[in-house]
Request: fold
Amino acid sequence: MNQNILSVSGRIFDIQRFSTHDGPGVRTIVFLKGCPLRCRWCCNPESQVYDIQQMNEKGKLKTVGKDVTVSEVLNEVLRDRPYYRRSFGGVTLSGGECLWQPDFATALLLACKESGINTAIETTGFADTEVVERFIPLVDVFLMDIKHIDSKKHEEFTTRPNEKILENARLIAKKAKKLIIRVPVIPGFNDTKEEIEAIASFASSLDGVNEIHLLPYHRMGQGKYEGLGRPYLMGDTLPPSAEQMQELKAVCEKHRLITHLGG
Reply:
C-alpha cells in the first residue's frame, strides 16, 4: 500500500467497534471532528467544532479530539476483519462530517478498499460538488440525511439551507453504488405526515434509491451540551411515539420505499 496514503492525518473524536446500525453487517465507526451544520438536536455536539475540546464528563474533564494517521486508524479497523467477513460488514465514517476532511477521509477509504474492507459514510451531503465526486468511487454505501425539503425551515433548524444537499443527493444517486436516505424525525421540525411525504417523494425520485430510514428523535446527547457549557436548544421536546412513527412509515411505503425505523 502507498505509504503516502497511510501517512495522511486527520482529526477524530472516537472509534466504536461492533456497531450494527450504521451500514450493513458489523461495522467499525470512525467519528471525524468538524461539521458545517449546527442541528438543534445533534446528539454529538462535540463533533461540530474541528478544534480539540475539553468536555466535563461526570465531574472529570475529558479531551475530545485527537490527530491520527490513516495507518493508525486502519490498524484499529483491521482488528475486526473476521466479523466483517461473516456479516458483510466493514467501516463507516461518521462525525461530524467526513466531507469536510476530504484528504484524510478519502485516504482512509482508499486504504480500507485496498484492504478488502466494505466502506460506508454517514453524511449531511453539505459540501462542494467537487468534494463529493472524490468520495463516490471509494464508498460502497452512502447513508445520507435528508432532513427537510423546505430550505428556509432547514436553515432555521440547522443553520444551513438545503439546495446544495438536494443537488448532491441527485448526484450521489446517479453515480454511487448505493444510496440510503435517512431522516431524523424531529418534533416541531419535520414530524408531520406532509413533511415526511415531501421527503419520501424526493427520495423515490432519485435514481436507484429504494430504501429510507426514519430515525426517531432522542435526548441521549443532552448531557454532552452541559459538559461543553452549551445550552440544549430542544428544551423539553419529547420523542415521537411508536404509533406516530408507524404512521410516518406508512407514508414512505406509499412511495414504494423499503422503510426502516431506527438505524
Observations:
- The CA atoms of residues 22 and 171 lie 22 Å apart.
